[in-house]
């Protein structure tokens, strides 16, 4: 009996090991179907807080606050313009870093954008930033996302230019 | 003729009123200085009680990296360099609780770095 159990256990372990060797974990571009399913799921099920509205007034000062907060923290992955300008690895991540001016991001509600910045998104490189940024800073970033400049108009992040 | 008799009384009354005015004008208050140390990721003290109308100077000292403090609701802000000191002078004009946040990105818990002012009558 013990021998039979050990045999089953051994075979199972071998199968797992063999499976691990066949899994490809290289970061590559996701397929269209995968992207489509994930996008739909994120917009409609996974990303919460759809109904919360931005408590900040949409004016030039608040957008400038958002631009400042964004340029201290988010630029490493999203570039100064939120459109990945100058970010050398943006296309090499899986999934790739999206343009924040694109429809995929802009179609989230303000509340959902706040939720994404608060908690991050798995599976992707987007980290949660609650407490790393204050609520006020995050809401101002959400405002900035609605007023992104033209792609490339702000140059590249300093960290990648020398 | 009558006004000649009244004039000294009027002058005396005016002098008396002027003296009263001088006596009742409050002397300029010296602002209260409060030292606040900013160090990743706290302000010490983290809560300060203030009186409405009492001038105050927050003396902000950085014990490590650059920091700042901004009370958005009061429209006041100061920034301080690494290991340096800066002053924020103001007179609270309304009562209430006002939360200020670090205004210079300083690391992983920057967003939670807050200082609360309790302004009372």
List the main descriptive attributes of the protein structure presented here.
heterodimer; A: 162 residues; mainly alpha; 7 helices; 0% strand; elongated; B: 121 residues; alpha/beta; 4-stranded mixed β-sheet; 3-stranded mixed β-sheet; 9 strands; 19% helix
How would you describe the overall organization of this protein?
The complex is a heterodimer of chains A (162) and B (121). By secondary structure, chain A is an all-alpha fold. Chain A is 49% helix and 0% strand. Chain A has helices at residues 2-22, 32-46, 60-73, 75-78, 103-106, 110-119, 135-145. Chain B has 121 residues and is of the alpha/beta class. Helix content of chain B is 19%, strand content 43%. Chain B is built from one helix and nine strands. In chain B, the strands form three sheets. In chain B, strands 2-1-4-7 form a four-stranded mixed beta sheet, with no helix packed on it. In chain B, strands 3-9-8 form a three-stranded mixed beta sheet, with no helix packed on it. In chain B, strands 5-6 form a two-stranded antiparallel sheet. The radius of gyration of chain B is 23 Å and the shape is elongated. At the A-B interface, helix 3 and helix 7 of A face loops of B.
- Helix count of chain A equals 7
Largest sheet of chain B: 4 strands, mixed
In terms of DSSP E residues, the strand content of chain B is 35-45%
Tell how many strands the DSSP assignment of chain A holds. Answer: 0
Summarize the helix and strand pattern of chain B as letters.
HEEEEEEEEE
Distinct helical segment count of chain B: 1
Uncertain runs of chain B are none
Task: Assess the beta-strand content of chain A as a share of residues.
Answer: under 5%
Distance between the termini of chain A: 67 Å
- Give the total of beta strands of chain B: 9
Percent range of helical residues of chain B: 10-25%
Structural class of chain A: mainly alpha
Low-pLDDT runs of chain A = none
What integer value in Å does the Rg of chain B equal?
Answer: 23 Å
Largest interface, counted with CB-CB under 8 A? A-B, 13 and 10 residues
Rg of chain A (C-alpha, Å)? 21 Å
Mean pLDDT of chain A: 92
Q: How would a crystallographer describe the biggest sheet of chain A? A: none
Query: Oligomeric status of the shown chains?
Result: heterodimer
Structural class of chain B: alpha/beta
């Amino acid at each position: 009996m013990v021998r039979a159990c050990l045999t089953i256990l051994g075979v199972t372990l071998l199968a797992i090991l063999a499976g691990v060797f066949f899994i490809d974990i290289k970061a590559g571009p996701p397929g269209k179907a995968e992207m489509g399913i994930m996008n739909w799921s994120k917009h409609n099920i996974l990303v919460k807080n759809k109904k919360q509205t931005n408590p900040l007034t949409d004016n030039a000062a608040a957008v400038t606050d958002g631009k400042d907060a964004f340029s201290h923290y988010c630029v490493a992955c999203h570039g100064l313009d939120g459109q990945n300008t100058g970010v050398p690895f943006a296309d090499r991540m899986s999934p790739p870093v999206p343009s924040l001016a694109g429809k995929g991001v802009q179609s989230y509600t303000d509340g959902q954008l706040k939720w994404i910045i608060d908690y991050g998104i798995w599976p992707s490189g987007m980290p949660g930033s609650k407490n790393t940024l204050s609520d006020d800073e995050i809401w101002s970033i959400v405002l900035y996302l609605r007023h992104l400049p033209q792609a490339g108009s702000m140059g590249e992040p300093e960290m990648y230019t020398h | 003729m009558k006004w000649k008799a009244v004039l000294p009384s009027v002058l005396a009354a005016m002098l008396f009123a002027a003296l009263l005015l001088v006596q009742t004008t409050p002397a300029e208050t010296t602002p209260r200085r409060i030292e606040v140390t900013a160090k990743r990721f706290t302000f010490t003290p983290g809560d300060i009680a203030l009186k409405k109308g009492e001038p105050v100077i927050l003396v902000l000292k950085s014990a490590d990296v650059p920091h700042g403090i901004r009370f958005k609701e009061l429209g006041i802000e100061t920034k301080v360099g690494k290991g340096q000191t800066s002053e924020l002078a103001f007179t609270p004009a309304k009562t209430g609780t006002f939360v200020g946040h670090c205004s210079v990105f300083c690391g992983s818990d920057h967003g939670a770095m807050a200082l609360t002012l309790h302004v009372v009558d």
